Amino acid sequence: MQVFHFSSRLISTKALQQAAAQCNEQEPVALQLKPSIRWVFRAQERMEQVLRDTGAVMVYSDRFIDGGFAPVIDYQAGALRDDFDFGSVILFRADAFREAVAAMDADYEYAGFYDLRLRLSRMGEIVHIPEYLYYEDQEDNRTSGEKLFDYVNPANRAVQIEMEACVTDHLKAIGGYIHPDTLSTVTRQSTDSHIQCTASVIIPCKNRVRTIRDAIRSALSQKVRAPYSFNVIVVDDNSTDGTVDVINDELQAHSDKLIYLAQDASWHAIGGNWNRALHDPRCGKYAIQLDSDDTYFDETTVQRFIDKFEEGHYGMVIGSYQLTDIDGHPLPPGKIDHAEWTDTNGFNNALRINGLGAPRAFDTELLRTIDFPTTKYGEDYAVGLRICREYKIGRIYDVLYNCRRWSDNSDANCSIEQMNRNNWYKDRLRTIELMARIRKNLGL
Questions:
Q1: Residue 270 and residue 278 in contact, taking contact as beta carbons nearer than 8 Å
Q2: Are the beta carbons of 261 and 232 closer than 8 angstroms?
Q3: Contact call for residues 325 and 402 (beta carbons, < 8 A)
Q4: DSSP characters for 144-206?
Q5: Is the per-residue pLDDT at 153 higher than 70?
Q6: Of 249, 311, 353, 418, whose CB count within 10 A is highest?
Q7: For residues 425 and 405, what is the distance between their CA atoms, to the nearest angstrom?
Q8: 36-55 per-position pLDDT tens digit
Q9: Region of 87 on the Ramachandran plot (φ > 0 left; ψ -120 to 50 alpha; else beta)
Q10: How confident is the model at residue 154 (pLDDT cuts 50, 70, 90)?
């Protein structure tokens, strides 16, 4: 194999063009993204064998990191994240590599490799070899929770602009691009006379005795102008740690505004808990998110959402948040506002990034026709993708929410296996959504 060394996956178009000019078509082309790779015996030959046997345009494998098993996941049509983990050695069929590079018509400083692999995915198969073929060293020792917000860090803005342009061109090439003129506002199918309040704050929870009181009181402290009104719906999913006692304490003091829904013992997860609240007849015209370990920034959050919905008749409105510790002290990078969202392309770029932002609020009548998937991870992303396929999304770029990072967050410090499951599921959501968008564009 012909090996070209790069220090990361952020490779320029020019660097790939230089590599293509140097390679021949007789040997496979390898990109090595870390300086010190140690091969398992006969592993290079194995990689080349799979490339030949499958006729794939590109293959990659599992590996060891710091001596421990570090598997990766299978590629699929919805694997559109620019940070998809292929490991540190990627092998290409030489003719496919040269053809894809020759077709590059944008001069990217950072998105060259992303452009390359998206083009290759349109030319043939990208194959994962589920075998541990080499060793590499860990270079980023941060926890998964610390890495989670890299893609919205303002320091990475230039990178993100290129990645968005790249994925947009890819979506156009495969028929998955949504034109902004096809998006609509919400037209209500019924009058609002049966709706008991304007907005409902939805708090799904399970075993959050340490934080649920803060969340409930934050929601109850909201102030809304007449004629608007709100309530708070807490859905408990069989907590066993004293969470229910806290909810009942608050219920006694605030029975006029607080609604408690207890789930049965079947499977619900976060998505199922949201569905229970949405389909309760007391749910308001708009349903506003508050996670059980977070709080609102101040007492105006609910009113801000109501105003935005009433102004634009959106299917969904998304605010901005700040990262804090459990005591509310700000953490870096601070404000997360998803400023990359634009009214002309945010709904396409949504297929590349890992989330649309928070806090999220929904038109309840619309959401009842969609529902959340019954899962405890990615349920909000699935609904956001589905809504922005057809409906306009409103954005509020001021901080409305305190996203509290602490040791019991579900994504605070995931194992490689858990991160792989999470990433595979979100890629699957993208695959499903991509199929739906292609069918929409075909008039099916």
A1: no
A2: no
A3: no
A4: HHHHTTGGG-GGGHHHHHHHHHHHHHHHHHHT-PPPGGG-B----SS-STT-S-SEEEEEEES
A5: no
A6: 353
A7: 23
A8: 899 999 999 999 999 999 99
A9: left
A10: low
